[in-house]
Amino acid sequence: MIKLPIANQLPQLPRLPLALLLSLPLLFLAATCQPSLVKRTEGQVKRIEMSKAPCFGSCPVFKLSIYANGIAVYEGERFTEKVGVYAKKLDPVAFQSLIKAFEEANLWQYPSIFRSEIPDLPTITIIWTDAEGNTKEIKGKEGRPQEVIELENMLDKIAESNSGWIQEVGEGNGLPAGAIANEIIVQLAPNVDPQVWVIPYGKQNLTLKEPISPSSNFWLVTYDNNIIPPQEMIDWLRKDPYVISAEFNKTVSGRR
Q: Residue 191 and residue 204: Cα distance in Å, rounded?
């Protein structure tokens, strides 16, 4: 069992301004009050969907849906930077360019399934719904037409972009709105050395990112949510006898 040295044996940590500390709860509250983009997709036609299934390795597993009102919803499962449910409003010009590319590709000329003899590759499914409501699905691994690969690349650029995404509540993770899946704010017991406390969590790649309130032993920690799901990680921390409290960190955005 690891003996935890007392915190006052560490170098004195810088104190955050009192005004900033007092504003933190209000900032977190503001994040939870953001209007849900996912909610705005209710009743909307899903024009485009792309999903990538698991492979034998570390292939990204996710689903990207794009609706008629230009809202994109990303559901990251594992081996992707965004784990959980995210949404954003696409740029209108980029959205119309994407719709035009799908219209010009004429996906109806291709079979719905492309058979594969390579089991290690991920299965990629693309579903297109035209303006009349007709739906075409194309599923496969290697051997798909170049026009389909180009559409996949366009969707990958949207999925992999880091700007504009807001994490929302979803079935896949059950996280609160605005929660950052791999960042947790923990309050450690007063006499706990945080540098030593993280050692037993090496398998989860738990690391100290920055102090939030050194005087109260609040820390922002990160971990690898491809190794352990967010809800399971926070449950572990809340059961830790050296942890007073643990909450997901949250994004903060201005009201629109």
A: 24
Residue ending a domain, choose from 168, 203, 238: 168
Q: What is the pTM of this model?
A: 0.57
CA 4 distance to own-chain centroid: 33
Rounded Cα distance between 106 and 50, Å, is 17
In a domain, 235, yes or no: yes
Angle at 251 between CA 248 and CA 252, to 5 degrees: 130
142-161 pLDDT, tens digit each: 899 999 999 999 999 999 99
Query: How far, in Å, CA of 175 to CA of 86, rounded?
Result: 11
Q: Which domain holds residue 204?
A: 7-32+178-250
With beta carbons less than 8 A apart as the criterion, state whether 166 and 139 touch.
Answer: no
Dihedral of alpha carbons 222, 164, 26, 178, sign = negative
- Indicate if the alpha-carbon torsion angle 74, 76, 81, 83 is positive or negative: positive
50-93: per-residue pLDDT in tens?
Answer: 999 988 888 899 999 999 999 999 998 888 888 888 999 999 99
CATH code of 203's domain: 3.30.70
Mean pLDDT confidence for 102-128: 92
Phi first, then psi, for residue 191 (nearest 5°) are -100, 15
Q: What is the mean pLDDT of residues 115-138?
A: 92
Q: In angstroms, how far is the first alpha carbon of the chain from the final one?
A: 51
52 and 137, same domain (yes or no): yes
